[in-house]
Design goal:
heterodimer; A: mainly beta; 14-stranded antiparallel beta barrel; 2 helices; B: 8-stranded antiparallel sheet; 6-stranded antiparallel β-barrel
Chain lengths: 400, 413
């Protein structure tokens, strides 16, 4: 048995090394449309299960997408998550690559009444723009680069009004800027001043997200989230050489459309958790160029918890995850064909201190788009999250 | 137990190495901006160029500049200008017997048609009224000299040539009557000095003045010593000198003038309404065409920076009013040099290209009000140089124009 576990661990590590050494790279051409590539980030644990996490609460999982998920946290909990992505982009005639590393989120959860009421504040990345085109002509190097994205700050309250029901609501403050940099580097002998132009759209606004988790018995959970549509104020800024700045453009609006998600999870025995999520958003109603349909994401995942005791070997206390997700971006640009994405994931949960802290890592590999969409992208993402729990702010039990 | 710990550290090291290897890869951008390959054309700006004819142009002059503090004095006639030289020398030491004298002038440059080798006769006259080299001009001098020449010399149209160490000396020998004036401390020669003129000249010869450390004009006198009974040469430096210039005939109307002596200046204004406000200026040049047969551009001076016509361009802070002194932006000055009359002339040249581009940038971006700019000499009173610029009205596409290359910001987002 020990030999088998060792082989599994070695294989997992080997897979990561092979993938890391491959010429993989990212961002995405498709992030040039709309408000960028939207992260449907639930938790680093969930990413190891293909993104399944709406209905999988656990004592060390801080849920970013379903506010009801924090109601059952027994400890004051801090979570920070990041991701690194590398994408190879290819078209019929050429190829490119982009890498991107960014924080995904931070949450601080305080259970006011253990397992019953919790509050949380947090920051998370909602969308990301990262792509680059360039051309060398006549000695001048011209490039167009997309950067930035939308972030959200959140205030969450979650309650467990009855034994099997968890409810939560988040007030989300969206902010960020979508930047388009256009530069032309002229050869020195031309006597031309280089062009350095940055167009930015700064957005800000608020919206709500609601969620619930309902447990049927001790092994089955159902979950739902809904985030009504909201309009964000958008203001345009044009900057040259970081010196001249124009901001006197008429304000506009960017719509974050209605999003609805459903999830379920089943505990099979003591060690295996099986789950599925479905999440959809009405990007077709956002009025963004190129988005002709709603987006949806379907995810399936499995977690194996070795459930080793305090004195068991280290890796027998870890959790191992696999998953798969399929996503329709709702995007039909640039070729008028639906842009879809699939990804397979593996993940691992590494306890730092028994039952009070954990590192979750997930590796996701997949493909986005196809030659019919003009851009075919293969990507690898590494998700990482660290969660620490402690009894801060919690009163000790009164003696009778 | 130790084996397990080692394995754990090895695993962590491998993980860290793998992540590091992965994270260090460089981005490779897609090549090209072809919309047929899916590039969103709204994300790319566009580059354009434009030649703007001046929307407003005028020329004006105010007071005549003085020349007494400049490093040169000019003598002769060229292209409607007559230049005359005023000199006053240090007094002859008391007790010396002057037996001979000559005026020495050292040549800096010849201003004229270089292909024509010629000469002119310069005459020397006593000045009949006192003058001050810091204020004297042709206007206030009022021909205060004795028309009877006391000496004359032939001045040839040669300068130093390429050999900068070879300075030609023009020696104007004084005859016995003139030497008597040198001896006499009450003579006009001794009191007021002399004027040099050349009414029949076809070129102008430029000499070094007292404001030049070397090659100063001098009065060479030969004196006889009472003790040794031997002749001895003494050199008396000029103590005051200037050149006065007058226009022999009025300049043609309708042209645009810039010069060092008569404060001719030009105001130009361009209309940028055709250029998007969100444009970045990559290049801006002022293009002018000179009227060669009227322009006077010096070349061949001792120091290269003395050659050509040095000008400055300054933005106007309010609309030009011919009845008021122009209000100028003194924060940013653009300097330019026109060293040959080859058309077209592009200003300001590479050294001040960034500042001039900033003028245009701020006008286009509307961060500075566009009232146009003033173009004038940076060296008033320096020499007889003059630029005559073809105006828009008289010259088919040869009037002052602004050549600009610019980048217009993308439409996105």
């Amino acid at each position: 048995m020990s030999a088998i576990k060792h082989k599994v661990r070695s294989g997992l590590l080997g897979l990561i090394l092979v993938l890391a050494a491959a010429p993989v790279h990212a961002g995405s051409y498709y992030s040039s449309r709309g408000i960028g590539m939207v992260h449907y980030f639930v938790s680093a644990r969930a990413q190891g299960m293909g993104g399944v996490g709406l209905a999988t609460p656990d004592p060390l999982t801080v849920n970013y997408l379903n506010p009801a998920g924090i109601a059952g946290l027994p400890l004051t909990t801090i979570n920070a998550s990041f991701f690194h992505e590398a994408t190879d982009v290819s078209t019929a005639t050429q190829s490119g690559s982009v890498t991107d590393t960014d924080p995904l989120g931070f949450q601080f959860v305080v259970p006011v009444k253990e397992g019953m009421v919790a509050f949380a504040i947090g920051l998370s990345s909602y969308s990301r723009v990262e792509f680059s085109n360039e051309e060398q002509r006549g000695g001048a190097l011209e490039s167009v680069t997309g950067e930035g994205g939308v972030q959200s700050a959140s205030l969450t309250v979650a309650v467990r009004p009855v034994r099997n029901l968890y409810l939560g609501a988040s007030l989300l403050f969206y902010f960020g800027s979508l930047r388009n940099k256009w530069t032309v580097d002229f050869p020195p002998e031309s006597g031309l001043r280089d062009t350095e132009n940055e167009n930015a759209l700064s957005v800000s606004g608020a919206k709500f997200r609601f969620g619930l988790i309902y447990r049927i018995g001790s092994a089955w959970s159902l979950a739902a989230v809904v985030a009504p549509a909201a309009n964000l104020n958008a203001s345009r800024r044009v900057t040259f050489q970081n010196i001249v700045e124009f901001t006197d453009f008429p304000d506009s609006e960017v719509t974050i459309p209605l999003a609805i998600g459903f999830g379920t999870a089943v505990q099979l025995g003591k060690k295996v958790l099986l789950g599925a999520d479905f999440y959809t958003q009405r990007w077709d109603e956002a009025g963004l160029e190129g988005f002709g349909d709603r987006s949806y994401r379907l995810a399936l995942g499995l977690e194996f918890s070795a459930r080793g005791g305090p004195f068991s070997p280290y890796f027998s206390r870890a959790a191992y995850r696999v998953g798969f997700q399929y996503r329709d971006l709702g995007l039909e640009a640039p070729a008028g064909e639906k842009v879809t994405e699939w990804a397979a994931t593996v993940g691992i949960g590494l306890p730092i201190k028994w039952s009070a802290a954990r590192i979750d890592l997930a590796l996701q590999a997949g493909k986005r788009g196809s030659p019919r969409n003009l851009y075919e992208e293969t990507f690898i993402r590494l998700y990482g999250g660290i969660t620490l729990g402690n009894k801060w702010f919690q009163r000790g039990r009164r003696r009778p | 137990m130790r084996k397990n710990t080692s394995r754990r550290f090895l695993s962590i090291a491998l993980w860290a190495g793998a992540v590091g290897l992965w994270a260090c890869q460089q981005d490779v951008a897609l090549q090209g901006f072809d919309p047929n390959e899916g590039f969103d054309p709204d994300r790319r700006g566009r580059r354009e160029n434009r030649t703007l004819a001046s929307a407003f142009e005028t020329t004006f002059r105010d007071s005549i500049n003085t020349t007494g503090t400049r490093p040169f004095v000019s003598l002769g006639r060229f292209r409607g200008l007559e230049a005359r030289v005023l000199l006053r020398f240090a007094p002859v030491p008391v007790g010396l017997e002057v037996i001979d004298a000559a005026i020495l002038l050292r040549t800096n440059a010849v201003i004229g048609d270089k292909t024509q080798k010629t000469s002119f006769l310069a005459t020397v006259h006593e000045i009949t009224a006192s003058w001050d080299d810091s204020t004297v001009t042709d206007e206030n001098f009022q021909d205060a000299f004795d028309p009877m020449a006391i000496a004359a010399v032939e001045v040839r149209s040669v300068d130093r040539g390429a050999d900068t160490s070879n300075v030609e000396t023009v020696r104007i020998a004084l005859d016995s009557l003139a030497v008597a004036l040198v001896k006499d401390s009450t003579s006009l020669f001794r009191q007021n000095g002399v004027l040099l003129q050349a009414p029949n000249a076809t070129f102008i010869k430029e000499f070094f003045s007292s404001n030049n450390d070397a090659n100063i004009p001098q009065l060479q006198i030969t004196v006889r010593s009472d003790t040794t009974d031997e002749d001895q040469s003494l050199f008396l430096d000029v103590v005051e000198d200037a050149f006065i210039v007058r226009e022999l005939e009025p300049l043609p109307e309708g042209l645009l003038y810039l010069d060092n002596l008569f404060t001719n200046q030009v105001v130009l204004k361009f209309d940028f309404s055709d250029i998007p406000r969100e444009a970045q200026i990559n290049r801006a040049d002022l293009r002018i065409n000179l009227v060669d047969e009227l322009s006077i551009i010096k070349s061949g001076g001792l120091r290269l920076e003395n050659n050509g016509f040095a000008l400055e361009m300054r933005r106007l802070l309010k609309e030009f009013d011919p009845n008021e002194a122009p209000e100028l932006d003194n924060q940013l000055t653009v300097l330019g040099l026109v060293s040959t009359p080859e058309n077209p002339v592009l200003l300001p040249g590479s050294q001040f290209a960034a500042v001039f581009r900033r003028y245009v940038q701020e006008w286009v971006n509307e961060t500075t009000e566009n009232h146009g700019m003033l173009v004038r000499a940076i060296t008033p009173g320096f020499d007889v140089s003059r630029l005559v610029i073809r105006p828009t009205a008289q010259a088919n596409k040869q009037g002052p124009a602004l050549e600009i290359e610019f980048s217009v910001a993308p439409n996105f987002p």
